[in-house]
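Tutorial sheet, problem 5. The two components below are modelled jointly, 683 residues in total.
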Amino acid sequence: MNSAQMLLAAPEFWLLVMACVVMVVDLFLGEQRRGIIHMLAMLTLIFAGMITLRGDYLADGVQSVTAFNDSFIRDRLGDVLKVTSFVILGLVFTYSKLYLRNFKMFRADFYTLSLFALLGVMLLISANSLLMIYLGLELISLSVYALVAFDRNSGRGSESAMKYFVLGSMASGMLLYGMSMIYGATGSLVLTDIAEAIRTQGSGDILLIFGLVFVVVGIAFKFGVVPFHMWIPDVYEGAPAAVTLFISSVPKLAAFAMAYRFLSSGLGDLHIHWQGMLSFLALFSIVLGNLAAIMQTNIKRMLAYSTISHMGFVLLGLLPGTAYGFGASMYYVIVYAVMSVASFGMIILLSSRGVEAERLEDFKGLNQRNPFYAVIMVLVMFSMAGAPPMVGFWAKLMVIKAVMDADMMWLAIIAVIFAVVGAFYYLRVIWYMYFEEPENEAIVTAPVDFNAALTVNGMMIIGLGIFSSSLIALCMTSF
Amino acid sequence: MIVQELIFYAYAVVLVLAASMVITVRNPVYAVLFLVLTFFSAAAIWMLLEAEFLAIVLVVVYVGAVMVLFLFVVMMLDINLVPLKEGFIRYLPVAILVAIAMAVELLMVLWSKGRFGTDMFPLPAPNPVGHSNTRALGELLYSNYLLPFEVAGVVLLVAIIAAIALTLRKRTGIKIQDPGQQVRTRSEDSVRLVKMKPEKPPGV
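Model answer (structure tokens):
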């Protein structure tokens, strides 16, 4: 292995070094100068983005390059997802600074653990062997377990972290078991070699299918789709809003990359088998997620169930196994991350000192308290419901078109029906904001950087919707 | 050959029995002890496979360090097992259904043709004299599996950070020892000689 190959992983090395630097620098800073940690973390993200965008590793006509004996892969898909996760994490940091200050939790651990989780996300996105998939997943999971219990005085936080930890360990165990079966059947850990082995020995091997079942279970748990969704509402509700903000956005990008690499690059020839499993998961997620969200009075739980239905839509795109389907699915997951960050940012905004704005009633009369924020929330809710011209509309449209192209009309019809059902609870939030009297007359304000980030986020939701072709093209050319 | 087979079957039977005891015994301390036995039998089977380094690491690290620590934790926690068992009967029917489904699938895999059996896996050639298991492992770890190895290190680092972030708290107003101050103590600081008039004896 030469140094050029090592350089392929330069963004990962940079992030590892900077996460350690952030951890050590904090030792020398007092309580008053914690802002430096925030700046340092933001700089880390900016430079990581710049390093990633130096795409000069691709010669003409080469789609992807591998390094470290094929366990690491660098391609367009990975670069797009990585840069997206830097942008999203930048928004997360900006929003959560306000929350952490208000709730007296402004500690460097939040930044260190988030950066390590991001490193896990990047490694998982670039994973090309079963070992790297597992290790990247564990790196994300371990950091996130600790982040969920970040508020040590909160019993709810510890409880949900414990639930997440136990269920997550079980899912990891399932995934490992499936991986061991696949390794046993094909004799390799590298995804491309696995695909090669399946091609030569045929896809009818019952051992392979048995392993595939467990792998799909592991992937479904990380997505949080029905019937492996139990942890999502509890963790979203129990974790501090700043952490929920993180969990609901960046790791989903990695989950998509993992599903694509595993199911398409590795087990592409078993498409006929995993298509059935995924359509079952997608169908039940869309139905149950939307129905359960209607009944929620806690907005964090409501958004959790809405996440479940959104992840169902992401799986819809994976079903056909075509380049168009994967592109649509990737577009959906990026759009979802942008919308999700904005919605949890609004919850942080409305939270006053020591109390999270987690009841739907907290949004009552927001228009009278601050019309600008109400408009942003309207954009987010319309986009999540899939109304044109917001970005969420294009995402739903493309995913459903991919399913129709695969001759699964019944699934497309059910998805559309439940997308309409889901519009009810998004519109209810808008109703509360504009047509109900506020319970609390205090005017909502936020620091400049928070407002700037929220404005950018809102502009992304409507701007990417109106000028949708660039991001769609970016996603489509990644496959 | 026959001796090796006898050793294998002896340890394999002990392993399976001990593993099933781990999840069935009521007392958690016994469960931990059975887990130790399970690990030990697994180490013996690895030894038969000529994976000496892994076998020894399993005994030294898992049995020697991790399980002893685990035993301490189990003994120190006063776990009330009754509430833990409450859901057992209620979820038993579903659990049995899932277990049967899993068992059937596993058996299907095991009986599928051309996958398992001694004819599928010829006996590997014995390692040459002077072959170092440890060296072979080390060479693989630092060449072929360099990236996973380093990432595993990062995972451990995160585990340390997470553990400290969740448990370290700076408490004010607690009494702690300061060895430096203890050493610097002088007799004048702690003993005070007081001159006072003798008291009158009582009852005079």
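Marking note: The mean pLDDT of chain B is 86. Full credit if you identified this.
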